[in-house]
Amino acid sequence: MNGSSPTLRRLVIAAITLLATLPAAGTAVARPHHHAGSPGAPSIGDPLFPGLGNGGYDVQHVTLNLRYPTAEPIQTVQGLAVIEARATQNLSRFNLDFAGDSVGRVFVDGRPVRSSWEGAELVITPNRTIRDHRRFRVAVPYTASTTPEDPTTLITPWFATPSGSFTAFQPNYAHTKFPINDHPSDKAPYTLRFDVPEGTTAVGNGLPTDRRTFRGRTITTFEERDPMAAELVSLNAGALTVVNRGRIGGVVYRDVMPSHLVDALEPANALAPEHMAFMERYAGRYPFASYGTLSADSNAGFALENQTLSLYPAAFLINAPPAAYEPVMVHELAHQWYGDSVAPERWRDVWLNEGHATWYEQLYGAEKYPEFYNFEDNLRTYYSQGDIWRAQYGPVSSPNSAVNILDLFNPNVYQGGATVLYALRQVVGERTFYEIERRWAQRYEGESASTADFIALASRVSRRDLGPFLRDWLYGSKTPPMPGHPDWTVNAPGAAPAPETRKAPTAAGLERLRKR
Predict the structure, then answer these.
(1) I want to staple 241 with a disulfide (CB 3.0 to 4.6 A). Which of 83, 259, 368, 499 is the partner?
(2) How far apart are CA 77 and CA 157, in angstroms?
(3) DSSP string covering 429-467, please?
(4) How far, rounded to the nearest angstrom, does the alpha carbon of residue 156 sit from its chain's CA centroid?
(5) Number of H helices and number of E strands within the chain?
(6) 64: which strand partners?
(7) Does residue 170 sit in helix, strand or coil?
(8) In terms of residue numbers, what domain contains 395?
(9) Domain total for the chain?
């Protein structure tokens, strides 16, 4: 176990072996000594997700040890989360987000500590104050279950299919399956270690670093060395096949799919290098070491940008025409730059994810399938809906927190976000626009960034103050005039929706089906 102390190594081995006999949540241990310090905040302060995330520390690395007792898609998985963090204050107490099935005795730096489980918060009190800037390690044994897909809401964070189980944690479901600081502003590298029955294939984000089989069990380790938000973690196990395509242009390609669907999925899966070449032409170098598709044996209507391993329903890639699924695949690939590598600082900044991905989805569709996609006409249609969307959902970068939080993923952050980018391109010109795009991805690679950061960077690159212009577009209750298009008009709220100008489904439509 790379980077682990002997004490932690023994702890991990013992926990993986004996997790089936975990004690109940909140087991008490010796009362701690109290030193000067204060509790970390029980929330990271995101207005759209009050209570999500935690303060007082910064996660440096996460290891998830996962034992699947059986080969069945539906089961209770036994886990041990090892979280390495750095205190950002003198820390007398801190929280992890967790709403799984059970929690065992918690350890900090190899010693048992007092903890309590309160709703979706695991409150941990170390034996002595953790000093500001000091690194510490938390080990939490737990259990969480895979469940059947919910056909009514399409929101099942760890869902079972005939071929195995898969995860879809966006936006705030990771903590329902493992303890973590569940917010994209606190990213970290991950080690994912799967212990499954021999004959079962397990796959996670990043690249495999170790695989061994002993006494009927196979343990496979994956490393995602680039920082990753918890919502993008991908945990998958079952009757799966991994197709390794080797290294192309410096990127390792591998696709994961149900074993009985390999031939049917090959036409879509083989397109990833072509899509990568398209994206790198506009966005610059791909930010990770690997990429691939993960096809779930499912008819669910969603796709998701899990880091380095985009998730799709196999039925969509098999049954839809290329003009439908290719732009969606580019949408999810674009997220690897915009949303994964550069994550939103707060969820109100999600237009930076979805507006960019919608932009490249439409651009690719117009280049390859002009009979289905007309870039200018589609942007004009989006523009016409601006006031309707703002009235219903709030401004592009200030979604209405009064509505159900699942409406965060609404047309105004997808198509409305792309419309903001179009207006920006109209003002700065195409060459400067794509320089902004590349510089944004480079400057904040591996970090979380805000709308204010984007406005500031766009102003620096264009050498003009774009603040008033972009703030009107992003925060105004009314859609501003479109530069260069005085003939473009905006429909009033309550008007009939504008007619669709495409025949192929969009990634936004697929994603919103799931996220609602």
Answers:
(1) 259
(2) 14
(3) -HHHHHHHHHHHHHHTTTSEE-HHHHHHHHHHHHTS--H
(4) 15
(5) 13, 25
(6) 81, 192
(7) coil
(8) 343-515
(9) 1
Residue 227, judged by CB atoms within 10 A of its CB (0-12, 13-18, 19+), counts as buried
Nearest Cα neighbor of 121 from 66, 78, 176 is 176
Q: What is the CATH number of the domain that holds 366?
A: 1.10.390.10
Separation between Cα atoms, residue 212 and residue 303, nearest integer Å:
32
Is 459 part of a structural domain of the chain? yes
Q: Is residue 439 part of a domain?
A: yes
Residue 342 C-beta-side C-alpha neighbours within 13 Å? 27
Helix or strand holding residue 15 (H, E): helix 6-18
d(Cα 71, Cα 68) in Å, to the nearest integer?
Answer: 7
Q: What is the pLDDT along the chain (516 residues), one digit of tens a residue?
A: 344 333 334 434 444 433 333 333 333 333 444 458 999 999 999 999 999 999 999 999 999 999 999 999 999 999 999 999 999 999 999 999 999 999 999 999 999 999 999 999 999 999 999 999 999 999 999 999 999 987 666 678 999 999 999 999 999 999 999 999 999 999 999 999 999 999 999 999 999 999 999 999 999 999 999 999 999 999 999 999 999 999 999 999 999 999 999 999 999 999 999 999 999 999 999 999 999 999 999 887 789 999 999 999 999 999 999 999 999 999 999 999 999 999 999 999 999 999 999 999 999 999 999 999 999 999 999 999 999 999 999 999 999 876 677 789 999 999 999 999 999 999 999 999 999 999 999 999 999 999 999 999 999 999 999 999 999 999 999 999 999 999 999 999 876 655 443 334 455 544 443 332
Closest CA relative to residue 222, chosen from 275, 292, 313:
292
Segments of 73-113 assigned E as strands? 76-87, 91-97, 102-103, 107-108, 111-112
The answer to whether the peptide bond before residue 171 is cis (omega within 30 degrees of 0) is yes
Q: Which amino acid is at 291?
A: Y
Domain membership of residue 216 (yes or no) is no
Four-residue CA torsion sign, 204, 353, 389, 370 = negative
Q: How far is CA 474 from CA 30, 272, 454, in A?
A: 53, 32, 11
Residues 6+ apart with CB under 8 A from 332: 303, 304, 305, 310, 311, 312, 357, 507
The single-letter code of the amino acid at 355 is G
380 located within any domain:
yes
Please give the Cα distance from 243 to 266 (Å, whole number): 9
Q: Residue 366 carries which DSSP code?
A: H
Query: Cα torsion for 199, 201, 202, 206, to the nearest 10°?
Result: 140
